[in-house]
Task: inverse folding
């Protein structure tokens, strides 16, 4: 019986409109393939990376700023060259992509939780609570996301100390970026809830005696998932860019735990001395990753809006 249910569920997924439109869109398929490749390479970084950039004993300062292997002066041990500390660029990109993706995905998860809960409460309960929560969101949106992230990051470093911040840098960045960008979800969820709570199925649930939390999370929320899914895709790219910007400004990942942003920051100091590869290769990987995520977000937006999507 369970096997039949799994088979029928898999058949429904394959026959769904989402899969149909995905298989018709070559840009979406290419973007998904690149994104999946990034995820796999990041997960397998400890296995496939030629060197471990986190282990100081595996690199030598005498190998610093070596060009890529195919250029004069390059070393075949370092395909994409080395950075200012002698770390293999290819290895740091693999590990750095892992850090950047982790921060992006977990930060969006935190944004989701905060935004959905606040948006549901504001839209369903309404009244003074709605005004209070939305005015707070409006105040935060009046500042740029990066400004809020910089302020929160500076507060965390001052309160917890630089050493503690560096030790838990990934967790700190997840919290900082999550706190900075939750209003996007809250406003979207609130708008959807205001439209949904007037419908008959919500009135029927109230008549049946269901409590407000069950109505909000079991009945209203599933009907708000389409815009949330679209926003989440774009927000992953925004979170990765926010982490890169914070690391570039020295408020993100420490030097000994490279992310794509911190690699670009390190290389920027050497780009005019001729060591362009330290910044160029991590920068290209970051741009490509953000691009494919944004392309997937645009595709999802079009699919969920039949007035735009033409198949």
Result:
């Amino acid at each position: 019986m369970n096997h039949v249910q799994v088979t029928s569920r898999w058949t429904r997924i394959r026959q769904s409109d989402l899969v149909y439109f995905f298989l018709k869109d070559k840009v979406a398929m290419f973007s998904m393939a690149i994104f999946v490749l990034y995820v796999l390479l990041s997960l397998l970084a400890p296995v496939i990376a030629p060197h471990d950039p986190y282990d100081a004993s595996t690199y030598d300062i005498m190998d610093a700023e070596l060009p890529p292997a195919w250029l004069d002066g390059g070393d075949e041990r370092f395909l994409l060259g080395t950075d200012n500390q002698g770390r293999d660029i290819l290895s740091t990109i693999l590990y750095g992509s892992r850090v950047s993706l982790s921060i992006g995905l977990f930060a969006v998860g935190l944004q989701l939780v905060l935004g959905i809960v606040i948006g549901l409460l504001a839209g369903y309960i309404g009244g003074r609570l709605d005004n209070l929560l939305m005015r707070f969101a409006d105040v935060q949106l009046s500042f740029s996301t990066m400004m809020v992230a910089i302020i929160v990051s500076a507060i965390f470093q001052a309160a917890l100390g630089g050493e503690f911040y560096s030790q838990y840098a990934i967790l700190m960045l997840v919290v900082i970026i999550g706190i900075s960008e939750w209003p996007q979800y809250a406003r979207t969820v609130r708008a959807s809830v205001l439209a949904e709570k007037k419908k008959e199925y919500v009135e029927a649930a109230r008549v049946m005696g269901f409590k407000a939390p069950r109505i909000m999370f079991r009945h209203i929320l599933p009907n708000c998932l389409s815009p949330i899914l679209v926003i989440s895709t774009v927000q992953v790219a925004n979170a990765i860019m926010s982490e890169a910007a914070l690391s570039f400004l020295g408020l993100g990942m420490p030097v000994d735990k490279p992310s794509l942003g911190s690699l670009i920051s390190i290389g920027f100091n050497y780009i005019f001395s001729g060591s362009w590869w330290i910044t160029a290769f991590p920068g290209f990987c970051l741009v490509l990753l953000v691009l494919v995520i944004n392309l997937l977000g645009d595709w999802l937006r079009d699919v969920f809006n039949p007035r735009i999507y033409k198949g």
About this structure: The radius of gyration is 23 Å. The chain is about 70% helix and 0% strand. The mean pLDDT is 80.
